[in-house]
Amino acid sequence: MTTLDARHLSKNYQIRGTGLRGATLRAVDDVSLLVRPGESVALVGESGSGKSTIAKMLIRLVEPTAGDVTLDGEHIGTGRRATKAYRKRVQMVFQDPFSSLNPSLPIRHQLARPLRIHGIVRTRAEEERELHRLLDSVNLGPAAEILAKYPHELSGGQRQRIAIARALAPRPEVLIADEPVSMLDVSIRLEILQLLDDLKRERNLAVLYITHDLATARHFSTQIVVMRHGRVVERGPSSAVILDPIHPYTQLLVRAAPDPRSEPFVIDPDRHHASPDVLVSEADTGPADGRHWARAWADDAAVTELLAGV
Amino acid sequence: MSEPLLRIRDLTVDYATDRPVRAVDGVSLDIHPGEIVGLAGESGCGKSTLAYTITRLLQAPAEISGGSIEWRREDGGTTDILGLGGRELRAFRWQEISMVFQGAMNALNPVHRIGPQIEDVFLDHRAGLNKAERRERAAELLRTVGIPVDRLRSYPHELSGGMRQRVMIAMALALRPRLIIMDEPTTALDVVVQRNILEEIDRLRSEFGFAVLFITHDLGLLLEISDRVGVMLSGRLVEENTPQALLDGAGHDYTRHLLSSFPSLRGDTPITGTRYVDRGPATPREEARA
Lengths: 310, 290
What we know:
The complex is a heterodimer.
Chain A: E1 4-14, E2 24-35, E3 40-44, H1 51-58, E4 66-71, E5 74-75, H2 80-89, E6 90-93, H3 107-117, H4 124-137, H5 143-148, H6 156-168, E7 174-178, H7 186-203, E8 206-211, H8 214-220, E9 223-228, E10 231-237, H9 238-243, H10 248-256, H11 271-274, H12 301-308
Parallel strand pairs in A: 3-8, 3-9, 6-7, 7-8
Antiparallel strand pairs in A: 1-2, 1-4, 4-5, 9-10
Helix pairs in contact in A: 3-4, 3-6, 6-7
Chain B: E1 6-15, E2 21-31, E3 36-40, H1 47-54, E4 62-72, E5 78-80, H2 86-92, E6 97-100, H3 114-125, H4 131-144, H5 161-173, E7 179-183, H6 191-208, E8 211-216, H7 219-225, E9 228-233, E10 236-241, H8 243-249, H9 253-259
Parallel strand pairs in B: 3-8, 3-9, 6-7, 7-8
Antiparallel strand pairs in B: 1-2, 1-4, 4-5, 9-10
């Protein structure tokens, strides 16, 4: 199966506006990610940290300013055909199931379209069988009834299941889930995350799970990557990042997240002194300018300001 | 225990639509002076309707079909909130109970500066302040919630989400109410900002001594900040207890379900992804399974 490897991704936006003309917003600043088959990587950070921009670059809705994305080491061209081939392998589940499904078309259409576009089915009978299989894989039924419905006739959780089924339709190898449960009621979030987790296992999917919820990031991912202001500030195995966060921003996140079953987390700004040597791994080649995250906040005004408020 | 500030008894609210909906179903709840009472529940469980009933903001087709809400005045007497009307209601609202609305990010008027929007509260509810005094009070309120005073001249879009939320809280504090109802006040905010706002609320509460009815779907959050937590399901208040008691052993199935639906961040609680089916008020309490 496929490993998604994004190296040194950057995205700059030129700001247009009075007095700001010519200014550049670095939405994503030299971020590398590696997602292996059967593995889930969580990308966490506050709004505006660049998480969704990364998702959009990975699904090719936004052209990166710099950087490479490869699937199994293979570069995929930029033309229309190549992009279609790319998207057959990399699919996305969006945040809001209330707006990501076309409200004027029945579920049948929403699911059959990707099947036709990507040439998964040839005949009507095949299509019917595939539709049933898709609904079955996201635990929705009875199929005939669901297929005839319109999005507004389904609950939020059901809609998100449809969105997941639609993403699975082209039989992708990489799934990008951008805040897939943040619009849903608390009590059905775990169901959907569990479903994604099961699908990851069954289909050996590489999953990039974008979220601001540290708890689910920890429990449903093997790796956590923490972003702030377009940069990666910390990354590592999920439990290590949460239980023993090093970067002050990660510590702030851990302290801020509600966790009624544990003792309050105590921030230790000096913790990085205890672990100065951070492994530069295959997954994290570090920014090209050599400013590795573990040392990158020493002169970061934003972090100093954050810590002043502790 | 002191006399409750607010005493809700058997409150029932219906939406008189083609297919009538019972949004609040026989809810009884007390709020004591200075305490934070959390109300948890999912979308559609009636928690916002309850908030709007207390502040008398309900509009047709909503109808209060039964029950009472009693308010203990500072002079020791009681006011029947549901019986208020006209000038009395106007004098009561904001003066005694104020509210921070859901989606407060968008609750400010985008075409007016912050200052005049805060001053509006004084114009509307307490005549007698002149222009300079109103301005001075608005500045004081901003300082109270930790926003630089020069922001009075800012438009809402020039403020971050957290700052807008603070402005909303400043407005709720304007007339020194004794109860503030907060309906999902931090839902759209980042966790770090959310934590700042919560700490701010707690600080203001110890400074001014108001009580808070805090409504959210985030049970984990409520368990951390509340003195007592109520859980709503399909319009009913199915359980109400202290956070510790709920964590130690919730009485109702649904509460247990909610408790198991957010994984502990640093603990090692096993997670389950099952759905709760509401079987109505007759759901057995099942002490044995707790």
